[in-house]
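Morning run. Coffee first, then this:
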Amino acid sequence: MLGPGDDKVADDFLTKAAARLRDRTGADLTLAGQVHPRTRTLTIRSVEGARTDACLGMTTTPGRGTGGRVVALGRHVLDGYGGNSVGTSGEPRQFTCSERVRSVLAMPLRLDGRVLYVLYLAQRADKPISATTTNSALRYVRQLESFLAQTARKHQTGAPRRWNVDERALVQIDRELARLSFDIARRPVKARIAAIRDLLADSVLEAMPRPEAAYPLTRRELDVLGLVAEGCSNAEAAQRLAVSPETVKAYLRNIHSKLGVRNRTEAVAVARRCGLLP
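And here it is:
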């Protein structure tokens, strides 16, 4: 899946990712874009909840606009278009596809530290995107990054993917729940179905096998160590993972203990020698 140059597979992946992001967060609008590997130009390939098709095919270069800044910075950016930007530069940006949105959260999907895709969620209401919505979206993106890493590893080694659960059965259950949701008018029931679908999606993503290694680091510890290897501070890693800096420190203490090292530099070096990090 997601083989190099396979635009059809990439579009299918982005369409599903944008749809699930909208379902999960309740955003008015979600978009997904692909980053060109050479020029790093971002092109919008999928839109969910849009009033027109004007957003499809839009492009932006690194550093320009919300998505371009995500590509340049390698981290999420939150912008409010009704007043001041809440991103990194303090400069208001315009969302130019006539959707009348008031706030946008854009998030990178990375593989080996390189931004491959950008996911957006946008709200038309005057109130800003909440911390709860932001955290939920960032958790989902981290899961997708794990999925991309596993898929890339499969293509590199040629080894079949092994699952701890029956993936096909879970996907079929999700499809049946989606059909059922269309037939039900009561909002509380729809909300419960949506929650069950989120649990199923989490189960599939979490069931992916971890890389075998001499050191039993958890998936979350690998996430933390990967961000440290990218040069993130504890505060930056906490922001990317949607946790507190104290939680990141706790993960690092566990990592140091398991790897038998004294600091983060040694931890990254050992992890790379063991194949835990690229």
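Residues 186 and 192 are 10 Å apart (CA to CA). Good start to the day.
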